[in-house]
Amino acid sequence: MTQVRTKTDLARSYLDDGVICVPGLLDPESLDLAEEAFGWSLDNPSPAAQRLFPDAGTVFYQDLFNTLSWPHYMPLVQRAGLGPLMARLWQSREVWFFFEQVFHKVGAGRRTPWHQDTSYFPVEGEHLSVVWISLDRVSKEQALEFVRGSHKGTIFNGAAFTGDDDTAPLYDEGAMPRLPDIEASRAAYDIVSWATEPGDGIIFHPSVLHGGGQTDAGEERRTVSLRFFGDDCRFVSRPSVSKQSAVGFNRNETGSRNVEEFYEGLSPGDLFRHPDFIALEAA
Ligand SMILES: O=C(O)CCC(=O)C(=O)O
């Protein structure tokens, strides 16, 4: 008999594993909206847009937290029902859009270093998700990988995303524990991944360790990664960034708001709120 996963199963898996795959999350119209939004982000880079690992000779591009892009993502978020989906997954009354991130990989590129997104942003809570949507087919070999359940463990120093050592820390040594070398001892970790078709979604807690997702020669991967938060999220302090990171750019020069403006006045332990985060229909 075919096993049908209910919404309750998904919520349980999300809570336990910190990551779930939702085949067919986007219908064809939502997928078109995702393509439009991704195209807008590529055509309108924020000052934080970066070509990562430029010496690799292939394209590994990212941009994020461009507040000018947010209206372009709302039709997708609404059409795909991501607000109500988050509310059901987390049992949260309210859901806010946190920010968008896009990745564009072209050619025989390297893996995304293992990392946790919460190392880069001063927020914690169970009501947090990343919805990762590839506009292109992704094979199991090229899938983004996750360490199941790691969202319940240590929050490590950020990966610096430079050089050959993927555990090289973003913040000063000692500020947070250094990332373990997961690639060097993969068997010691419970690593999960899924092949995806355009329109499938992978939903993960931003504290889950994730990495991988390399592309091969002649291939392109266009990815939209949307972030959401809900009721229980609180502001936490993170070390100040001593090296250039995507968080520290001045976006104002393009008319985008800066990340820091959304944290003004918050002290560690405060509910993570700002009136300019977009509140979504949650039911
Ligand atoms: O798509 C990738 O290679 C990286 C994705 C990622 O790290 C994220 O969405 O947080």
TrEMBL record:
For whether the record's keyword set contains Hydrolase, the answer is: no
- Signal peptide residues are none
Q: A Pfam family in this protein?
A: PhyH
Which keywords label this protein? Dioxygenase, Oxidoreductase
Domain of life assignment: Bacteria
Is Oxidoreductase one of the keywords UniProt gives this record?
Answer: yes
Give the Gene Ontology MF terms in alphabetical order.
Answer: 2-oxoglutarate-dependent dioxygenase activity; iron ion binding
Q: PANTHER family from the entry?
A: PHYTANOYL-COA DIOXYGENASE, PHYTANOYL-COA DIOXYGENASE DOMAIN CONTAINING 1
Q: What is the official name of this protein in its record? A: Ectoine hydroxylase-related dioxygenase (Phytanoyl-CoA dioxygenase family)
Q: Which organism is it from?
A: Novosphingobium marinum
